[in-house]
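Narrative summary of target 7.
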Amino acid sequence: MKNKFLIVLAFALAFAVSSIGHRAEAFPANGSSAKCIDCHILTKEEAANILSKIGITELPSPAIKRGGQDYWTGKQIFSMILPKDMSMTFKSSIAPKGQVGLKELREEDGLVVIKNGELMTGTVDENAVGAFKGRILDKIARDYGPDAAREFIDKATKLAIGAIMVRGFTTGIDDEDIPEEAKKQIAEILKKAMSDVEALVEAYKRGELEQMPGRSIEETLEVDAMKTLGRARDQAGQIASKHLGMENSAVIMARSGARGSMLNLSQMAGCIGQQAVRGERLQRGYWNRTLPHFRKGDLGAEAKGFVKSSYKSGLHPTEYFFHAMGGREGLVDTAVRTSRSGYMQRRLINALEDLKVKEDGTVRNTGDTIIQFQFGEDGIDPSRSVQGHAVDIDDILQEVLGEEPSWQERLKEQEMASYGLTEKDMYVEVSEEEVEIEEEEPAPEE
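Modeled conformation, tokenized:
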């Protein structure tokens, strides 16, 4: 329950910081030449209304003056609930993945920079206050104690509710609408992928398919077909998400980490893709074919469970049946996994129930036998560690020297602890080169 709450909170705060108010490009009131990039500004009434939710009656100085009116930014409002001596830098969930330049991060508002309790740039989302990845929440709990963390969550929740009441948010089926041009590009990609699979099947029948090491010729065909169709689905998803844009409500939810993923959206708007059972294309069904709708011995994409339709366009009867076959495996797997993990947990508890950490730092059982000379072999308390390390050296240096380390060093991709793999983790990023097909030539008019 707590995890779901924190993820929803991240979603609401993504608005509070980066999306509320009216979009504007203006110069700050202090006369600085730096533009307020991608600001969403608030009037005095709106800012006062949001801050009243957390009992703050005095407004900070306005960030923008224009036409004789004062305006405040969402970042200013969020800064009011941060500890005044807090400084940190990290990438937000909406930031582009992998190695990216500082300019690109700034353009996406994906570089979160907090200096002396003031949010300078960036979007507050799942990476900031999420259940597993919340960097701000993690730092407050570790450096300022559990009471400060509780107060931050309480205030952030009330702030987010106030912000979303001003901004408003809704999503519907029309959020998955894509233009005809995009539909044609997706159809072209799927058509090419299916013809590529047909070419593989023909090569297999002629005995010309190059066999993969350690696999039979039949397994090689299946692996190549899955790879081709998987890439087609990812390309269709990238075209769909490119046309949906960052202003789309469903995209905002997926990118901020509130609910859903870009994979879900690509399946709604683009193409559902290959259905699999036990990691392979669908095999079982009728004799020598999956359904009586196909010829015997058909090894093509459609006959083996490739669903080229999207949820928005609707599935054909055969596609629906194949989709149900793929979905059944997920249900069975969940049921089996639950019982197995429960039994394993019970055995672990029985095995470890008499272990405790003694005053000298050793781990012993009731017979006073030493199990470990040091707890966990490293003596680190996981609840107070920084991603497995006892101390955050960069953080200490920044506090002592007052210098911000190089942004590249600070943003080194570190594996965040997470419980279980979510569907969005399985979404494969496709490089720009692989989507070149959409820019080569438009699909012929029908």
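The chain has a mean pLDDT of 81.
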